[in-house]
């Protein structure tokens, strides 16, 4: 698979790009995009948006707003873009913690 020929599909603004794989479109996040997402999550925790190990209702909208502020013109949405990234981060974090 050639990663150098990624399609921008409107994401050519620093957040990342998406590329067509067999059967679906997969999002490729840039390091800067990941940093902005993680900083926004940390900010939500610091502001008390996480209670009883869960985020309050509306946290995805706040993450979308943070990404739009950092990357004007990006059209990332919670359901197809942000939620899978958070799920992947949780799985990776759990694997690292359990390995130690």
Q: If you had to describe this structure to a student in words, what would you say it looks like?
A:
With 100 residues, the protein is an alpha+beta fold. Helix content is 50%, strand content 16%. It contains 3 helices and 4 strands. The protein has helices at residues 31-46, 59-70, 78-99; strands at 16-21, 24-29, 50-51, 54-55. The chain has a two-stranded antiparallel ribbon. It has a two-stranded antiparallel ribbon with strand order 3-4. The radius of gyration is 15 Å and the shape is globular. Mean pLDDT is 79; it is low at 1-12.
Element layout with pairings:
Elements: E1 16-21, E2 24-29, H1 31-46, E3 50-51, E4 54-55, H2 59-70, H3 78-99
Antiparallel strand pairs: 1-2, 3-4
Question: In brief, what are we looking at here?
Answer:
The chain has 100 residues and is an alpha+beta fold. Helices cover 50% and strands 16% of the residues.
Number of strands: 4
- Separate helix tally: 3
- H and E order: EEHEEHH
What value does the Rg take, in angstroms?
Answer: 15 Å
